[in-house]
Amino acid sequence: MLVDDNWGGYRHTIETGNLDFIRPALIKSLRELLIEYPNWEITLTLKGSEAENRPAMGLVIRDDEIIDGLRREYLPPEFQSLQYEGSRPLGSKFGDIMYTE
Asked: Residue ranges of the domains in the chain?
């Protein structure tokens, strides 16, 4: 779901429970869309699932980096080793505070 709100930033927000949305090929495609829009970002939130005992988590995708906030211990085994080219962990810069709970 593309969230329809405008807080004044250059951001698109996607919320999903579908794990296929965090596959590296899709994330790379989204990042490539932002190359011509360096001030924009896409926040992709993987919704929590009580049935799967999974908290909400996600990625911030920018033209020059990916902030990886996925908590792999809550993902199925086939998703736990996902890596994203050009990514860094959430919390590795002070500005990341806006993406934490």
From this structure: 7-49+58-75
